[in-house]
């Protein structure tokens, strides 16, 4: 009788010890605080990123069942025996589950911003808070996915570099994956090719006709290489155009000056038809400059001795020098010599002009002077 009594009295204790051992072996443990594992605080716009950081942590700590319902709460009490009217006691398994659930709920709330926290203040368990967040962000996530797809469809390279454009498309694809709708590599490539300008058509053709579908990383490497070749060709083209323009400019300027014409006085050499050619095979073939004032080689008009000599005048005009009344307009344009003002007898040749009303005189090619002439106009420079 005593043995049976001892056995019956020890059975509940043995049963509780066994249950406690099994519960302890299955109870989750949080090795790392949630706020250290989830560094992103939940706002109204980053739910997908926050969720992507949270779920791996919950799987590793065996706490995901508290959110999806796969680890429901145990009963709060246990009966000490199977007899009717048996005394009940607190269930240790429920206490452990409750402690873990409250720690998880506290971690979830601490990882939210104030604007989101207002929507889950009534939650008493982690699952209630999780379900409230799911309902709140489900509709916004679907709207975000539609918005991202529109941005991908309308994304253009324009002035972006190849690297920046690729990162922009790849970033939108990552956002779509975080929202729960990941894209395949060929879909990302289709969006990428659609936004390239016409000059990238050879690149698109080469990528789409490969016998083996390239990876997204291979496409990026080829895109950067193609852009580098394009930039190098453009630089070479601009260099060639600049060299051609400089050569054409030097060709137009040879043999044409703005200074006094040939046949100078004061010992200036005359270069008439019968004059012998200059040294070096002519003015255009020698590297030595020719002065536009005195017609001598070896210096320019800026360094000519007669540049500031007002007494230095050309010889008397010959018979073929036109008079003022028969002055013909030179249709050629010459480089600027640094003059502060320009004059002309044809007002229609100046887009911006001012009539000169001063008292200074202007001396023309035949030596005649003109004072305040109505047919002379000047434009200050």
From TrEMBL:
Descriptive protein name = Retrotransposon Copia-like N-terminal domain-containing protein
Domain of life of the native organism: Eukaryota
Which species does this protein come from? Zizania palustris (Northern wild rice)
**Basic residues composition-biased segments:** 253-263
Cite the residue spans of the region called Disordered: 1-26, 248-292, 360-381
Question: Pfam families from the entry?
Answer: Retrotran_gag_2
Compositional bias segments (type: Low complexity): 1-21, 267-278
